[in-house]
Design brief:
This protein is α+β, with helices and mostly antiparallel strands. Helices cover about 55% and strands about 20% of the residues. The protein has a three-stranded antiparallel β-sheet with strand order 1-4-5. Strands 2-6-3 form a three-stranded mixed β-sheet, with no helix packed on it. Helix 1 packs antiparallel against helix 2. The radius of gyration is 32 Å and the shape is elongated. The C terminus is likely disordered.
Length: about 180
């Protein structure tokens, strides 16, 4: 009987080893499938965002044209119901675009120039100062869900730093003279 017990013990040990290997294989397969599922979901989301960005980019020239038309309404038509309707259409379009994550990049005059958001088309070489700021927005820029889809085209100038900094710089330079 001891030989039979040894054979049973050996067989049990072999079966337990096979069971352990199969369990590890199953766990790896499950992990691989979960990783595959996550990757496919991420790719699907990325494709959706890319499609959305392409669609919005195609709309930007239309938005630019509407904004130029509204900005250049002749004085005699300012109170015209049709002109007001077009302005209302633009507001409605802006609201809908904000809901899908489109935001206009801040490029008002005086805003600090940021090369990640702004594209400098012109630079005022004659201006003096340490800070580069926007002098004029030439074309609006936009982000979609925080990602830049079109840089704001701007004219850049220099502006003196804040008075406290201007005062400390001459004092710092005085001992060196």
């Amino acid at each position: 009987m001891t030989k039979q017990h040894k054979k049973i013990d050996e067989r049990t040990e072999d079966l337990q080893q096979q069971l352990g290997e199969l369990t590890l294989d199953l766990q790896r397969t499950r992990a691989d499938f979960e990783n595959y599922r996550k990757r496919v979901e991420a790719e699907k989301q990325s494709a959706h965002q890319m499609g959305q960005a392409k669609s919005v980019v195609k709309l930007l020239p239309v938005i630019d044209t509407i904004e130029r038309a509204i900005a250049n309404v002749p004085e005699e038509l300012k109170d015209n119901p049709w002109a007001k309707g077009v302005a209302g259409l633009n507001k409605q379009l802006d609201k809908q675009l904000k809901e899908i994550g489109l935001e206009k990049i801040d490029a008002k005059p005086g805003t600090l120039f940021n090369p990640e958001l702004h594209q400098a088309i012109q630079f005022d070489e004659e201006a003096e100062g340490e800070k580069e700021v926007i002098a004029e927005e030439l074309r609006a820029g936009y982000t979609l869900d925080g990602t830049v889809i079109r840089d704001a085209m701007v004219k850049v100038t220099r502006q003196p730093s804040a008075p406290e900094q201007a005062e400390t710089e001459p004092n710092a330079a005085t001992p060196a003279e």
